[in-house]
Amino acid sequence: MFCPKCGYKLSNEALFCEKCGTKLNKNTDREDLNASTIQVHSIRQALKKNIERDQVNALNVTGVYTKFNKIDNYKTCSKVPFYKNINIAMPLLSAVLTAGLTFAYYFHEVSVTKNVEKSRITAENMALQGNISAAYTIIDTSLKLRPNNETLKADKKFLQDGEVVTSHMNVTDNYIKEKNFNEALNELDEAANSISDKAGAFYTMLNKNIENKRIALTVLQIKSEMNNKSSIEDLAELLNKISNYNVKEASETASELRKRISTVAYNTANEYLKKNDFTSALQTINKGITYNPNDKKLINFKQVIISEKNSFEAAEQTRIQNALASAAMEDKNNKTNAVEVTSTSTGINKYGDFVIKGTVKNIATRPISSVQIYYTIYDANNNELSSDSTYVYPNYLAVNGTGEFDNTEYGAAKGHHIKITNITWILPQEDSHENK
Fold it and tell me: Where are the TPR repeats (predicted)?
């Protein structure tokens, strides 16, 4: 049974509540039985008096002796059997019937009291197992038989609270079917608030049911949300949330979240690896391993990334060294072999002057400017006559750009051909250079 004050679950033999100390009314059923006993006793006493009165009246009215004779001054009579005397037989028969009915009623009341107590215990056990509706029906039926039983009244009050919680739980289930999780959570809050000030085994069971429903609802909500999450961070947030619940459904959902995190980490890291972004790839894999440390696929892929990184860095170092060597060679060429003379021509004009013409090309990898051509003039016998120089125009030559030069040597009528002896140029923002 339950304490009528605090609702604490008690043994049927308890005299005081173990939790709040309230004295228990253990005499309810006994009082029911005593009331029946007193009633039976009263009836028996009344019956006894009636029998005695009827017997006296019967003797006074008709007498046991009904016929008188006066013989020898003595009164004599003939005796009539009492069972033939209706004035005696009827009261006796009535008394017997009344006694039988009284005892039948008494034993019926005893049986009812025992059955009510048995039903009460059954109902309490059913309620603690969560079958509140059936328990309520049993208690309500028992109260119709024993309306003054205080224990039954207390049990009914507890079960009414249970019915309120059950109603909220049913509404919660409807919201869950509609995937209206926020309203479902609000409904569970109302259920919890309705018994927030109650204590005892029954209310502990109700609160446990509410909490289990809240956990199941949270799991369903997370399952629904995780289908729309595609990043490790979002999935990890759901994983951290569901890890607070130690139930089978939560554990299964957490396992599924870890698998999804592993898949996202694996695919994302592959994309980084294609771009040779080894740092991001390793960071992504490490995130996945943090939430799923036993995932062999992620662990093996991490080793692959590290191996690829080392190979790439070694090859990159080689490329850098080659590039440096190439750049050094290129720089050298730019400084020593930037200009290629593509053509030259000489001749005597009508004034007897020696005319020199030619074209050049910028074969450097950078633009050049102020290209100056140095040359020596020879006669037909290859004798050196003089030396001079001239500038190429345009002054600025782009990479692979071409330019021209020409000059007139006055008074050099004997000139026949030239030999270019040197070429100088300027690289932008650097000093002048020359062909070696």
Answer: 262-295
Residue 342 lies in a domain: yes
Domain assignment present for residue 260? The answer is no
Q: What single-letter amino acid sits at 309?
A: K
Which H/E stretch holds residue 373?
strand 368-378
List the structure tokens of 237: 């947030």
Question: Which of 146, 162, 178 is a domain's end point?
Answer: 162
- Which pairs count as long-range contacts for 156-162, CB under 8 Å and 24+ apart, including other chains? 157/4, 158/2, 158/7, 158/127, 158/200, 158/202, 158/203, 159/123, 159/127, 159/132, 159/135, 160/136, 161/194, 161/195, 161/198, 161/203, 161/206, 162/127, 162/132, 162/135, 162/136, 162/202, 162/206
> The tokens 């396992």 sit on which residue?
255
What is the total count of domains within the chain?
2
Cβ(24)–Cβ(17) under 8 Å? yes
In a domain, 397, yes or no: yes
* φ and ψ of 359, to 5 deg: -130, 150
Strand partners, 362: 339
Per DSSP, what are the bridge partners of residue 358?
Answer: 344, 405
Range of the domain at 88: 28-162
* CA neighbor of 242 nearest in space, from 215, 211, 282: 215
CA-based radius of gyration for the chain: 60
* Residue pair 247/215 in contact by the 8 Å Cβ criterion: yes
Is the model more confident about 79 or about 291?
291
| Domain assignment of residue 344, yes or no | yes
* CATH number of residue 388's parent domain: 2.60.40.3230
pLDDT digits (tens, 9 = 90+) for 20-56: 767 766 555 544 545 555 554 555 565 556 555 555 5
